[in-house]
Design goal:
By secondary structure, the chain is of the alpha/beta class. The protein folds into 2 domains: about 10-235, Spore Coat Polysaccharide Biosynthesis Protein SpsA, Chain A (Alpha-Beta Complex), CATH 3.90.550.10; about 265-455, Hexapeptide repeat proteins (UDP N-Acetylglucosamine Acyltransferase, domain 1, 3 Solenoid), CATH 2.160.10. It is about 15% helix and about 35% strand. The strands form 5 sheets. It has a 7-stranded mixed sheet with strand order 5-4-1-6-10-7-11. The structure holds uridine-diphosphate-N-acetylglucosamine (UD1) and calcium ion. Uridine-diphosphate-N-acetylglucosamine binds near residues 15, 149 and 181.
Length: about 475
């Protein structure tokens, strides 16, 4: 993957306070597309095949350290470690804290925990530009570069220095090319430079960016890898910026899906907060949210306002509006909807709902940890929990499995071709034999034989010519 043979060690600066978020939650734990900002950066580092990732924490360190997950795609031996920076004396001081845990033989890539959308191939290009013996800076041109460090070049174009905005002259402030905050540099060059930093500048901070001057003085080549995609270097400082980057990111994802052939009713009202895979001819109406891992088979249609997480939906299935599918992690908890199934509107599929081919789930039906075989139907107002329903079972309106005795959950088995009438209570554990019928309003507490009609309710009584009481006059 990485062109240079040298190992890559990533340093992620995440000690800053993030005052402008005005939140108790540390800034880098705020979420973009369902993942903490810092998690995006750690996952990118894993995608880079990094040898180790050193996260510099300070403000909210305990929470930040506890809030991170091991990246899904980390290679074997991927090590994430935390180094504390107390107090926070600048970006140079932040990277100094990592020196004891950085091997001398690697290329160090410096990232920020609040810049979530840098792409792996961009960083690979930066590492190639570093080439194991240069200082490589990721840069970009901004129409309004206010606040950023400027890339100062000589007449011939060679990078000479990064000048922080607060230290820059009026002439330097005209420079549009800025430093993104991301660099790649061999550890053996970086370490002695870090040791020489001082804080004699407008902010009284140890600037990491001062290493450029040292490189130039020593004749180490400094190369700028300039990109044009601002999203990749966008940092988050405020809720407004977080929402803006979220929308920009979602729009980009939406465009990628449409390019694959997915038909989105409105790319501005489409959110993926995880992994979505779509086969051919998928149609998605407005305001749908996909999270965790979701697979949509060929020709699947998703109605408006559906929220779907951790689910596999088979070819030709239709999910009608306002359906909530909330599968869990792993095969057992994942929700499965079979080919040609119809679900919703207003249906709720919870962890472990497994629906076979052409199952119908109607409005206000909740299914949890239950299997429904091909052709089974529960069309109205029902609860199916901890149950298995055989093929072609018809499960009447208002019926429920009473699966919980107050202490334990029990299983309901409804064999093939059973007809459950309306408003039945199936008190688990209980089995309804194949082809049987349960009369409406029954409370079933005992197993029933195959083919039998079972009615378990008070016998109907009629009193002829009944006179209703009349209101007494005072
Ligand atoms: C930095 C760069 C600037 C660049 C800009 C890009 C320096 C001196 N300047 O400026 O050239 O244009 O990024 O966004 O590096 N942090 C710590 N410990 C500290 C200070 C900061 O961990 O003591 C972390 C912050 O949490 C943040 C990152 O480092 O994640 C960058 O710090 P920030 O203060 O935002 O840097 P800028 O002043 O924006
Ligand atoms: Ca600063």
């Amino acid at each position: 993957m990485v062109q240079s043979q040298q190992a890559v060690d990533v340093v992620i600066m995440a000690a800053g306070k993030g005052t402008r978020m005005k939140s108790k939650l540390p800034k880098v734990l705020h979420r973009l597309a369902g993942r903490a900002l810092l998690q995006h950066v750690v996952d990118t580092a894993a995608g880079l095949d990094a040898r180790r990732v050193v996260v510099i924490t300070g403000h909210g360190a305990m929470e930040v350290e506890a809030g991170l997950a091991q990246p899904a795609r980390a290679r074997a031996g991927f090590g994430m470690e935390f180094v504390r920076q107390e107090p926070q004396l600048g970006t140079g001081h932040a990277v100094q804290q990592a020196v004891p845990v950085l091997p001398d033989d690697g290329v160090v890539v410096v990232l920020s925990g609040d810049v979530p959308l840098t792409q792996v191939d961009t960083l690979q290009a930066l590492i190639s530009a570093c080439g194991g013996n240069k200082l490589a800076l990721l840069t970009i041109e901004f129409a309004d570069p206010t606040g950023y460090g400027r890339i100062e070049r000589t007449g011939s174009g060679a990078v000479q220095a990064i000048v922080e905005h607060k230290d820059a002259s009026d002439a330097q402030r005209q420079i549009k090319e800025i430093y993104s905050g991301i660099m790649a540099v061999p550890a053996r060059l970086l370490k002695p430079w870090l040791a020489r930093l001082d804080n004699k500048n407008a902010q009284g901070e140890y600037y990491l960016t001062d290493v450029v001057k040292f490189a130039v003085a020593e004749g180490v080549p400094v190369v700028a890898h300039k990109i044009s995609d601002a999203l990749q270097v966008a940092g988050i400082n405020s809720p407004v910026q977080l929402a803006e980057l979220e929308r920009a990111h979602q729009l980009r994802q939406a465009q990628a899906f449409m390019e694959q052939g997915v038909r989105l009713a409105d790319p501005a009202r489409f959110d993926v907060r995880g992994q979505l895979q779509c086969a051919q001819d998928v149609e998605i109406d407005v305001n749908c949210i996909f999270s965790g891992s979701v697979q949509l088979g060929e020709g699947v249609r998703i109605g408006a306002n559906c929220v779907i997480s951790n689910a596999r939906i088979g070819a030709g299935a239709v999910i009608h509006p306002y359906t909530h599918i909330e599968g869990g992690h792993g095969d057992k908890e994942m929700v499965e909807v079979g080919p040609g199934a119809l679900v919703g509107p207003f249906a709720r599929l919870r962890p472990g709902a497994k629906l076979g081919q052409e199952v119908h789930i109607g409005n206000f039906v909740e299914v949890k940890n239950a299997t429904m075989a091909a052709g089974a139907k529960a069309n109205h107002l029902a609860y199916v929990g901890d149950a298995s329903l055989g093929e072609r079972v018809n499960y009447g309106a208002g019926s429920i499995t009473a699966n919980y005795d107050g202490a334990n959950k029990h299983q309901t088995v409804i064999e093939a071709d059973v007809h459950i009438g309306s408003n039945c209570v199936l008190v688990a554990p209980v089995t309804i034999g194949a082809g049987g019928t349960v009369g409406g309003g029954s409370t079933i507490t005992k197993d029933t034989a195959p083919g039998a009609l079972t009615v378990a309710r008070a016998t109907q009584v009629s009193v002829a010519n009944w006179t209703r009481p009349v209101k007494q006059k005072k």
